[in-house]
Amino acid sequence: MEIKLQFNKEGYITEIPVNCIINKARPNCGATTCEINSPRNSIIIEPNLPVIEGKEISMKGKFFPVKNGVKVKEIEDYLKSTSGYKKLMTTPESFHKIKEAFEQVGENIYNYFMLFDECHKIINDARFRTSITGILEGFFKCKERSLISASPFSSEDTELFKQQNFSICNTKLEKRYKKDITVISTNNTVQVLKNILSKNTSREYFIFLNSIDTSLQLIEKLGIKNESNIYCSGDEHNKNKLYRNGYHQFYHQIGNYKKYNFFTSRFFSALDIELDYKPEVIIFSDYSVAQNSVISPLDDSWQIIGRFRNGVSSTTHVALTTLDAILESKELIKKKIMEDFVFYDKLKQLGETLPPRNKRTIQEILEHLPVHEYVMPNGELNPYRIHNKMKHEDTVEIYRTTETLKEAYLKCGDYFNLTFKVENFNEKEMKLTRRTYNKFMDNKEFIETFYYYHLDKDITSKEQETIFNSLKKEDALLTEACQLLPREFIEQSKFNRQILSREIIKEKFNREKIQVPVIALVMNTFHEDKKYTEAYIKQELDDIYKIVNLGKAAKATDISIYFETSKRRTVNNKGEKGYLLLKAKFTPSNNDPQPKFKEDDPEVLTKAMKQFISRVTTCKKERIHTF
After folding, report:
1. 521 in Cβ contact with 505 (< 8 Å)
2. Alpha-carbon gap, residue 298 to 112, rounded angstroms
3. What are the contacts of 139-142 at 24+ separation with CB within 8 A?
4. Which long-range contacts (CB under 8 A, 24 or more apart) does 153-161 make?
5. Alpha helices, DSSP H only, in 135-288?
């Protein structure tokens, strides 16, 4: 059944219909404000924290914000003490607190109206945020609930929700709300950006790019560090990365703008950026150095332009087009996932019939299978993750050629007034490279820090836990090496990562922490899209087989057990034969070292983190390696 969304004279929504998938067509039409002011109890789920923090300022006291640091007891007190309509706003990651609070006070959460704002993120973030689909079971149980977004659902998107008895509420965008956008297809994104910024036609530039590493590289190449801010999530990893690159203030909220302001994807939708002028907006996509920077015109570009309450002076999407943007057939992807899941499920059922040790072996094998990322805790396939994979392939295809990029925007003609340009440069111009900005300490400083805090023993304090988590995010491999291997061996290896990886796997096998070391060792030794000679493959597999006492001689063709390969071919200029490894048949197991407990007090974490960074920075200045 089709339902129409109602707007007032000023163009704002007057009522949110229930049990609907709502395409509101444009951002900034007051959907969240409408629900906060509506005469009913409701819970609003926002995809990212900045939205909640923004509304907390503009609508202070009208709703209860549930975010990091808010305790379940505080939510309970709000539910008990509020006499009027109760309004809560949360991210998917904090939803469990609300659910627990309702259980504690004996109130039925499913009697509340629940609104999932910017619901296109359910699909777009499904493979990277387990919480965003994990809350849907509870969401669907509500008697009244709705999904809403300014990015329209496709028919394939809507199909995912057909069993939940939603009506469709589509809104046709009026021509007056269409947005101007200039799209530049190029072979050199940094040169195009440099040319735009050199004109200096904007008081401040707002640059949307979903990669901190690429943002840092752009800032470095363009020489604009003192005039730049980077806005991203406020987790430890991002804080550390920015701090070690000279950014001592961390912006996970909007404000405090400089000349050049870089925003990651958490700022692409839902929040309001209010300025007293119209800025220039730049959207930046470069698949060659940051595959996650490819964006969808409707899911991302349309949302980004809509962040600015008072409009923009111009919007430019700078995009690298490259045949390296290789896509997979969606039909083949789905067919392979389904076939792999049949095997996965049979193997899992077999594991249920085995003794505990054998069960662990089966579980380890299951976790190595690529299909594992699509399996939910209840053992069923996650349809949202599968659909996310399909949509990602559609988005990658946009960036293969100038023609595919232009066609993608022309298909969105109801939303954009398109100006399309092609600007290519010769090879001598400055370009971006694949690069990460993760190393704050050198290896010696790292190992000294690890042992100074006695992290090779039981973690018993909050300070130790914070330092451990920081080191783990700084270098997970070296953290695990320090936990499992003798210090002398680590130093004698000269911190060779392949040697350390292999020894870690061997040690885990000896300690019975892993049951299937062959897969881990092979994945550590060989890599996709690389050529190896038959002699090298045989030698390395022989070594691996001896480590695990496999009791068989290796053949070069054994590599096809672990990788899809090319046909036998010449792989180097010496004329030696071998194979190009195409795609791994297994994935590395996720066995990162874990802290002993989790501290939920952000002040404690921040204090310990500052102490840690101060200590290491002091050592770097003094060029000492002991504390």
Report:
1. yes
2. 31
3. 139/45, 139/114, 140/164, 141/110, 142/109, 142/110, 142/111, 142/112, 142/113, 142/114
4. 153/21, 153/23, 153/119, 153/120, 156/387, 156/390, 157/120, 157/123, 157/387, 158/21, 160/123, 160/383, 160/384, 160/387, 161/21
5. 136-141, 155-159, 189-198, 212-222, 236-244
d(CA 366, CA 201): 55
Beta strand spans in 493-565 (E):
530-533, 563-565
Contacts of 443 (CB under 8 A, 6+ apart): 478, 495
Beta strands in 372-497 (DSSP E): 416-423
Residue 568 carries which DSSP code? S
Instruction: Work out the end-to-end distance of the chain between its first and last CA atoms, rounded to an integer number of angstroms.
Output: 69
User: Can you tell me whether residue 303 is helix, strand or coil?
Assistant: helix
Residue 121 burial (10 A CB sphere; 0-12, 13-18, 19+): buried
Tell me how long the chain is: 627
| Cα distances (angstroms) measured from residue 185 to each of 193, 292, 527 | 12, 18, 31
Whole-angstrom Cα distance, residue 263 to residue 261? 7
Angle between helices 462-474 and 443-452 (to 10 degrees): 160
CA–CA gap between residue 578 and residue 372 (Å, rounded): 30
- The mean pLDDT values, 10 residues at a time, for the chain of 627 residues are 85 94 92 95 93 88 92 96 95 95 96 96 90 92 95 88 89 92 96 94 92 90 91 73 66 83 88 91 92 90 93 96 81 90 90 81 86 90 92 91 96 95 85 66 80 87 84 83 92 88 85 79 88 94 87 91 92 94 79 43 51 56 44
Cα of 281 vs its chain's centroid, Å: 23
What the block records as the tokens of 132 is 């965003």
Contact 47, 270 (CB under 8 A): yes
Tokens of 623: 């060029």
Q: Residue 578: enclosing H or E segment and its boundaries? A: strand 577-584
Backbone angles phi, psi at 254, to 5 degrees: -75, 155
